[in-house]
Amino acid sequence: MVSKAGLREHMRQRLRSQEPEERRKRSLLIEERFLQMDAYRKARLVLYYVSMPQEVDTFRLMESALAQGKRVAVPACDTAGTDLGVYELSSLGQLRPGTLGILEPEVSTCEAVVLAEIDLVVVPGLAYDLRKNRLGRGKGYYDRFLSRLPESVPKVALAFDFQIVDEVPVEDHDVPLDVVLTDRRKIR
Question: Which residues contact 38 (CB under 8 A, 6 or more apart)?
Answer without folding.
Answer: none
